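Notes on consecutive records. When two proteins share a document, each keeps its own sequence and its own token line. Never mix them. Below: protein one.
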Amino acid sequence: MSGEQEGVRCRRAQSVTRAEEIQAVEQKIRKSQPDKPIHKPRDSLLSWTSGFENFTGFVNWAFLLLSMGGLRLLLENFIKYGIRVDPVQWFYMLTGQDEQGSEHPSIILILYSVVPVIFCLLTEKALSVEIINRGVGMTMHVVNLLVLIFLPMVMIHYKDGFSLIGASTVTTLYSVLFLKLWSYIQVNLWCRDARQNARNKSLRRQSLSYNNLPKDDNTKSLHHKDSKDDLSNTEKLLVQYPDNLVLKDLFYFLCAPTLCYELNFPRTDRIRKRFLLKRIFEVLAGTQLILCIFQQYMIPSVKNSLIPFSNMDVTLASERLLKLAIPNHLAWLCMFYIMFNSWLNLLGEVLHFADRNFYGDWWNANNIDTFWRTWNLPVHRWALRHLYFPLVDMGYGKNVAGTTVFFISAFFHEYMVSIPLKTYKIWAFMGMMGQIPLSHFSKFMERNYGPRMGNIVVWASLIIGQPMCIMMYYHDYVITHYGQSLLEDYGHV
């Protein structure tokens, strides 16, 4: 039977080769004819089978069209509201202080963040010298982290004077601090376990040591001796546990552009002054640009969406949503560049931090999973190293571990939105958990309609999902803090 299949394959190969030869001969004969033929088998350029991939002109066209649409919206807002940009108000919004006020609650909380850091370091020192046992130490760490994450929630809810931007800054800082201290605690735990294992092994008799190497091979013994000396010299240059438990090392990690702690980070030899100046300029100019987009573009569109969204006027609400989508997406793209390319590179350059791989080519992501794995690599690495892999090692399935990662991410998204607004809804949480079914849908589109369609799903979720979330939170914020009467006042305007 196998011989027959081999014969069939051979005849097919011969037939294909024969067909190609016939086509080549036919084409040669056609070219020699006096009618000067110019046609040959070809696909249209925009057909999927053409293999054409250079769409640079369309990208330039789309960028120009987007810029013209944004300029039109800018002129419309300027005609209706004038120039709304007011840099003086940015300071008051950040600190929570009005012109007559004297308190700076957001700054006070930012300064207080040093307390849980010192407490964490002291606990680790006590664990390293075995003043307290492992159970007590881990309990102290858990309590410290819980107080760290819930303190802003209590203070912002009950203390007056917090502005939206000031409270957002505090919750973002405390969220980052929580993740960094989690990594710090877990890495030091791994080091203590390794030290304990080394102690247990040192009590056992070594079956072979460098002193017992064969003496008849001098070259081999010398090679082992040199290798041992090189390894010893290298280890002396590296920080070993518990020598890393110093304030300088911990604060370097807290300032470094990473969420994952290591005893020895890769370092650069020098600071590139021109590179640093470029990043500083980008941060300063980009921040002003983002604030201008918020004040001039987004705030009027968000306010105008309140009544249609409250009345469930689908047509008008959709128009407001699409109008808000353009400035919101521009602000999001600017924030991505300023945060992941400018700010983190600035920190890395000042601190001689050599690992600058902060993001991947998320814009080419063909499904939601790929997007979340590439757009924010510091968070992705933290989730894998300190959550996903430990859960898998404990015996949980990959689906459970992946769902847990999305759950923790959803909690922090909600934490950084609901607390500053003092509007405790679950829209951001549900939006993040909704990424799981959206991931399956994007993979379905990629599988059945090609990678390009999967990429379109990713972009559509970014462009439409964020302004929808903003409109929902703004509506709930107005209802929660100002009541239904403000909606009626807006309706009469």
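Protein two starts on the next line and is unrelated to protein one.
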Amino acid sequence: MSNNCQMIRFLSDCSILFYRMLPRNKKNREYDLELSQETIDLKNEIDVKVSGTDNRNIFDDGRSQKLTPEEINDLRSDSSRASDIVETLITNSKTFHNKTGFSQEKYLRKKEKKYFEYIQILRPNLRMITEILYKLDPSKIQGIRMDTLSQIITLSNINSEGNHILYDSGSNGLLAAALLSAIGEQSTGKLIHMHPGNMSQKLALMGMNFSIEQLDRCVSVNVYSALRQFYQGCDTNSNDVLNKESIEGHNLKRKALENLNGHKNKVTKIEDDTDVKSNKSNVSDNDNEEYEPKKPKWHFLNITASKLLSEKADSLVIACKEDPQNIFNELSSFVKPGRPFVVYYNVAEPLQNLYMTLKSKGNVAALKLTCNWMRNYQILPERTHPEVTMDNGGGFLLSGYIFK
């Protein structure tokens, strides 16, 4: 098992397990796991007796550590215990003993996360999946933070009953996982997960380890195909494509048999046209017997989504990379009167245009355009966010209620 000596979370049962990492190959940082009943706190192993009174004379100029980065890497490969590594770093530090007791504990906690010998086995939850995906690459989930995700669930009033529509064009399945988690298990709720591509993104959805029963209540369909199924009753191009594939497959089999029996590879144009016409007639006659194709899964998903859309939805959530105005105008007609909607975008300008358009129409109520970075609750006045090291890209939310 390769590891970067940080805390790693794995999928497991509800019980919390601790494993100690035993070095197998120090150069490649490969470890074996050994079940441990308890973990050893780094603070208890390293006895710090001297501490300073304040930190006013300590400057972080990068020269307080005597060891070079190469020497620290050699130390990590030679030592098997985290306490030995941290104790050596403390010994070669010029400012550690001048820090206050609180600063020393903070330093030890930071080094403990970096050189920890244990991993903790936890069952993944929505907060964990969101934090991992956001730390890896925020752009792949459209910059949706955990606080933004919680606001989307709250404003859309997701519950365990009714139907809910989600249009998602690039959050790696994070919004689908959040809404399906809010609907819960063994409920009657349905989630219509619409996406613009051929296949939906399900990274976060699969990472949540939902049961099969819960996953079946998430109907993932292409938005264009589902709307065509709803308005026209069938996929107009599906029969032509399937018949074309069956005819081409029959022609390929015929040519392969001719080559195998030693017949001529080249035939005249008249003979070829005659064979094609006869093959087409044979295919049309025996279509129900030999060449009846099996319908793909998306065909049945479109039918299911069409039935759910005809029953109207209880909420609408949109998180897109394109202009949300046309998407909202199309999907809002499938929402029951008096039901909420939420539109997420990582910049404010498209939502401002949608806000002015909806204000002029008058078919929505309680319109509100908010930014999680500057919100009027949970935060003191004239403040931004309780986390000090948080970035300022949390996106914008346009919420309201639809009235016909």
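For the record: The mean pLDDT is 78.
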